[in-house]
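cache lookup: miss for this entity combination. No prior model stored, computing from scratch. Input as submitted by user K.M.:
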Amino acid sequence: MPHFAARAAAWFIALAVLALFVALRSPPANAFCGFYVGKAAADLWNEASQVIMVRSEGKTVISMANDYRGPLKEFALVVPVPQVLERGQIRIGDRRLFERIDAYSAPRLAEYHDPDPCAANVGRMMDGVAAQLPASVAKESAKREKALGVTVEAAYTVGEYDIVMLSAKESDGLETWLRGNGYRIPPRANAALRPYVRQNMKFFVAKVNLSEQAKTGISYLRPLQFAFESPKFMLPVRLGMLNARGPQDLVLYVLTPQGRVETTNYRTVKLPANVDLPTFVRGEFPQTYKALFDAQAAREDYRAIFTEYFWDMSGCDPCAAEPLTALELKQAGVFWLAGSGGRGGGQPVMLTRLHLRYTRDSLPEDLLFQETADRQNFQARYVLRHPWSGDPTSCSAAPVYFEEVARRQEREAATLASLTGWDVDAIRARMALAPQHRSRWWEALWKVGSDPTFPR
Amino acid sequence: MGSALESRVRPYFPALRAPVVAAATKVGSDPTFPRRRLVVRLPPDARLYQIAFQAILLTVGVLVRDFALDPRQMALAFAAGLVTQRLWLRALELEHKGSLSALITCFGVSLLLRADTLWIHPLAAALAVSSKFVLRVNGKHVFNPANFGVVVALLLLPGTWVSPGQWGSDVALAGWFVALGGLVTQRARRWDISWVFLAAWLVLFATRILWLGQPWGILAHQLGNGGLLLFAFFMISDPMTIPDRRAARVGYALVVAALAFAWQFALFRTNGLLWALFLAAPLVPLIDRAWPGEKFAWLNCVRRRAD
């Protein structure tokens, strides 16, 4: 009898848990986003895309920009979306916003000048911020009858884009439809589209409306913005991987109210930062950073995503660049700001800048994210220390100082070599360092005899 | 000369010399002597080597790969967990049977939990170990302590999270080899649940991959997750929190795998494994009542080998 009761209770609890799952099951929505599927065979290789993603409590706003430079009429964008988006959920974004947020969070150099070693202990002075990385921006765009299991759920013209929302029953039907409508999509598109079709996602397909585009008088394509609700916090990058001839870059700015954002299905790595680099880097920081990122991404086999920046936007001090205003944050899609008054009124706005370099096969599944409770600020920041340029004989402290500078410069050369994979001797030559004296183990030993302190 | 040296040496080491001589004469006469020494000096079960090995691998994997875990947090978690265990043993006047289970708990808590302060880890470890003494039904604790500690910290403590993606896959691979080695060389005893769970989990994954037409790389990627390894061999396998009867254990492993899968792919939430085990654990006392089996005791295996 007690057995019977316990069995009944066990089944009851099992069913209760099951019911909990059914109850918690959110709307049948799936996630979002995918990337640029080319209409032409040439000139569509997007090498850098930028995405601003705003996320809180299941609500997401995504803005997408890329550096498309091919003929406008061949531009096409195919993005899997969780639901058919209404006209009001789609908006044209502002490219300047990408420039602002990029400038604010880009990896940077900090310069310091050594104080006069002959003066008393003067603290090191910060001289401010020097170079920044440039970034890239741009944009792209589709329609037809219902066959092959493909349904045109809606069609809008938004700004310079003609947009159709498609649903499909089979991925090969979708592929045929796209081809039939003039899109020369990559050969493996069918396989890449299938997971999204099977998950009952819809497809946002955009192309450029040339006459509308001419009216704007703008030579580039403006970013597209979407707002939607979905329980999944993810970014589909696998469609974009089809375009990748070589490694492709994605810079992702995530704005959230709580803390740092990381991927849950890949490793999120902090770039090696806050190290001293040789001063010649000052004039060529973009190239140096590029080499550094190349080396680090290759080291992780293109399977890790890099954190370049994480900071509370409402309270950076000192700020590397002027932080985004409340208006700009709102334009980016931050929907939890209280008023339009003070910056970040109400809940804070956390900015995580993630940088991913991927190749055609490096990511077997789309990026899934989570917002952590981590609030430890981070910045990919590199330090230049300019030596004092005074006379080495001016005081007794000076020779000691210059010895220390020589050691420091050797360390800087080694650091740069290890971060970028460059040849350390070439770096030392650029730094005009004296040929390295390799000390032998016995030299110090024989010095002992001549050392007056030896008897001690 | 020789004897003079001997007389000088002997007074210094009387304690050392005497037992050596005694042992040399005793070995032949006492048949139980060598066995006793083995029991004292080596861990009683080869499984302990496997646990230690995997624990070290995973610890290295996390400390090297995850920038968010501070070794001080780990140290504090271990200190708090072990002290809590001692305090409960003393308070309840229980016999001290070694700290293995408390160590495993601290290991699980500190490797899984992330926090931006130092006090979270020791608190979670103390809660985890305490749950073992407080939340008991029929002489078995209800929750796996580490699982309880991590989930309660996520629910109640501010500034906590779990990073499921931060493990180094190379280290996880080494962990799998150790686990497979264990499977081959040991009678699996109650680790059957680990393997049943893993098989169910991977079958669910493979089915999803087939259904969606995703690349198989996802499966390999999943196996490279140290978190899965940690869960399978240190959490769900905890013999004190799983059903006693073998068939019930298998069913329980399947339920946990299905729950975890649903958590992740139907509800789109993170850390499905941890939540599934936490939600399923209260079923175990009921399962044990409905389908009773022989109760597990940590020392059984030692006694059996000695017999």
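stored under new cache key. Residues 22-46, 121-145, 340-345 of chain A have pLDDT under 50 and may be disordered.
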